[in-house]
Amino acid sequence: MKLYFHPASPFARKPRIVAHLLGLELETEFVDLFAGKGQVPEFLKLNPHGKVPTLVDGDFSLWESNAILQYLAAKQGDTALYPDDVKVRADIARWLFWESSSWSQVCMVYVNENILKPMLGRGEPDPAELAKVEEKFHRFAKVLDGHLAGRDWLVGDGITLADVSVAASLMYAVPGKYPLEGYANIARWFGQVQALPAWAATAPPAA
Ligand SMILES: N[C@@H](CCC(=O)N[C@@H](CS)C(=O)NCC(=O)O)C(=O)O
CA 48: distance to chain centroid? Predict the structure, then answer.
């Protein structure tokens, strides 16, 4: 199986973490998004959205990071990261959908404003944009922090796909200046994720 990725992408980091946790060797191909390589015809044939991650398994190509996580775990027959109990899978799915529709969306505003815009010479962070997202960020962070009170992991007693997915967007929490002060449970839980060898093994090279 081949994963098309960019080392700085939090979405592409998720399947690389999961592969590491599964002990699965994935062939990888770097897609230079900043050089427009996401938009070349050969890549658009694999993913018409031109985004990473994209997984290719034989003649099957799959995009959307959370779908890729489920595919990798199910294909490996893994029942630790992705237990096969129906309710547990539904619980994991709930966090994956929330991550995709809500959590990563607000986190990416901080990444765009505080990291990408200055890095790409697209101007200063827009205070109005950041103010607009802040209320949503706190609404989501409160739910996440509250859920993690008295728990080590999001679902059940061990790490699952849910933790990998929700934690990935936090890789830019410090340089992206996410307003995470006071969310002690998130900090403790994210510290556990950061302590995983799979987290270190998938870190982007230092700039
Ligand atoms: N919802 C998608 C998001 C993927 C995504 O936005 N990837 C970014 C990199 S962080 C990308 O490839 N952007 C290129 C583009 O939008 O042209 C997923 O979870 O896979």
Answer: 20
**Beta-sheet strands, E only, within 19-153:** 27-30, 54-57, 60-63
The residue whose CA has the least distance to atom 11 of ligand 1 is 51
The secondary structure element, H or E, covering residue 3 is strand 2-5
Best CATH choice for the domain 2-75 from the list 2.30.29.30, 3.40.50.300, 3.30.590.10, 3.40.30.10: 3.40.30.10
- What is the per-residue pLDDT across 96-145, written as a single tens digit (0 to 9) for each? 999 999 999 999 999 999 999 999 999 999 999 999 999 999 999 999 99
Query: Has residue 207 got a pLDDT over 80?
Result: no
Task: Report the alpha-carbon distance of residue 6 to residue 52 in Å, rounded.
Answer: 7
3-state SS assignment for residue 53: coil
Q: Mean pLDDT, the chain, as a whole number?
A: 98
What's the CATH number of domain 86-201, 3.30.530.20, 1.20.1080.10, 1.10.1760.20, 1.20.1050.10?
1.20.1050.10
Ligand 1: nearest atom to the Cα of 64: 20
Q: Tell me, using a 6 A CB cutoff, whether residue 55 lines ligand 1.
A: no
